[in-house]
């Protein structure tokens, strides 16, 4: 298999991505690669459990319940509103998230798509999709609807599953080749109060949907115009995932969404963001700031 120019993707994978607008990298990350991010997620779950206990909403923090089940079990007898107080997705600055965002296997794949000067976009989401919370389902949308005015093209989403993502627990669904579309006119989802950007049925066109169940550690890369959604979690455990975003360093860093960081640079390796920079929200690592 030929590896294309630089980065880890083969020419076949690259051709597939360019044509279809997405690419699945099955089990890209090992259990060891995921350890730090799972630890960060577990830390947050412990904090939530302690708060629920202090509020008298639960009597047991379920400290020994396995990672895929603990958050689901904590909220089993509580309302969706109680869960949504913590947000439908999280963007904390915990070291394990930085470890994942800087993982060389992810950056090697992204480098194949955009070259070796890689900016990590401030929009990253940790998604604890728990059962019984309707807002866990994400309507059809294009990611670019969240930054329509940003001069950033392309922004690559790297969606990573921490557990096996299945049709039952609400895996990702995608409409291939829709990355060639313009940004469609969207509305705000109002049924579950999430405020997600959403497209109506008649905007989806005739392209058949591809359903993407993947094993834990797999990555799904997609272009920010590619239509995608996910279904509700009908299982008894949490569909844990993370969606990360990367773009070339000469694009709009979108500071209105937070501080991104220089994840990789062949030109200025000494300026690549460290964990300490990231924890301090150090914002500027763009190419134009490095000259
Ligand atoms: O994880 C999901 O269910 C949806 C992810 C998504 O919409 C995204 O990564 O943009």
| CATH architecture assignment | Sandwich
Superfamily at the CATH H level? q2cbj1_9rhob like domain
Average pLDDT metric: 92
CATH fold node name: Jelly Rolls
H/E series, N to C? Answer: HEHHHHHEEEEEEEEEEEEHH
Give the biggest beta sheet: 7 strands, antiparallel
Query: Shape from CA axes?
Result: globular
Distance between the termini: 37 Å
List how many beta strands DSSP finds. Answer: 13
Structural class: alpha+beta
- CATH level-1 class: Mainly Beta
**Strand content of the residues, in percent?**
15-25%
Q: What's the Cα radius of gyration?
A: 19 Å
Number of helices: 8
Low-confidence stretches: none
Count the domains: 1
**Helicity level:** 25-40%
Q: Which ligands occur here? A: 2-oxoglutaric acid
Give the structure's gist in a few sentences.
The protein is α+β, with helices and mostly antiparallel strands.
Give a written overview of the molecule:
- By secondary structure, the protein is an alpha+beta fold.
- It has a single domain (11-34, 92-290), classed as q2cbj1_9rhob like domain (Jelly Rolls).
- It is 25% helix and 19% strand.
- The protein has eight helices and 13 strands.
- It has helices at residues 11-20, 31-54, 67-74, 80-84, 95-101, 104-114, 275-279, 287-290; strands at 22-25, 118-120, 125-129, 138-141, 156-161, 172-174, 187-188, 197-198, 210-212, 219-223, 228-230, 239-248, 261-264.
- The strands form three sheets. Strands 1, 2, 3, 5, 10, 12 and 13 form a seven-stranded antiparallel beta sheet that branches. The chain has a four-stranded antiparallel beta sheet with strand order 4-11-6-9, with no helix packed on it. A two-stranded antiparallel sheet has the order 7-8.
- The radius of gyration is 19 Å and the shape is globular.
- The two termini are 37 Å apart.
- The relative contact order is 0.21.
- The structure holds 2-oxoglutaric acid (AKG).
- Residues 127, 138, 143, 157, 159, 172, 228, 230, 241, 243 line the site of 2-oxoglutaric acid.
């Amino acid at each position: 298999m030929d590896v294309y120019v630089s980065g880890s993707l083969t020419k076949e994978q690259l051709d597939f991505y360019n044509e279809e607008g997405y690419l699945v990298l099955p089990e890209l990350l090992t259990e060891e690669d995921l350890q730090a991010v799972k630890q960060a997620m577990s830390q947050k779950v412990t904090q939530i459990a302690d708060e629920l206990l202090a509020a008298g909403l639960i009597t047991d923090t379920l400290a020994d319940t396995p990672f895929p089940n603990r958050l689901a079990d904590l909220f089993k007898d509580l309302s969706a509103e109680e869960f949504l107080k913590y947000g439908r997705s999280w963007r904390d600055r915990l070291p394990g998230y930085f470890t994942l965002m800087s993982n060389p296997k992810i950056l090697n794949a992204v480098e194949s798509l955009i070259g070796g000067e890689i900016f990590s976009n401030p929009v990253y989401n940790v998604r604890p999709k728990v059962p019984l919370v309707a807002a866990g389902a994400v309507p059809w949308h294009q990611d670019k609807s969240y930054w329509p005015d940003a001069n950033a093209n392309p922004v690559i989403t790297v969606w990573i599953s921490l557990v096996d993502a299945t049709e039952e627990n609400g895996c990702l669904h995608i409409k291939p080749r829709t990355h060639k579309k313009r940004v469609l006119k969207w509305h705000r989802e109002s049924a579950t109060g999430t405020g997600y950007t959403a497209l109506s049925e008649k905007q989806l066109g005739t392209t058949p949907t591809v359903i993407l169940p993947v094993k834990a550690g797999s990555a799904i890369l997609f272009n920010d115009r590619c239509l995608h959604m996910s279904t509700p979690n009908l299982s008894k455990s949490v569909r844990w995932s993370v969606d990360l975003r990367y773009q070339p360093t000469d694009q709009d860093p979108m500071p209105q969404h937070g501080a991104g960081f220089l994840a990789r640079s062949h030109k200025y390796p000494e300026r690549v963001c460290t964990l300490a920079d990231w924890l301090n929200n150090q914002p500027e690592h763009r190419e134009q700031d490095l000259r």
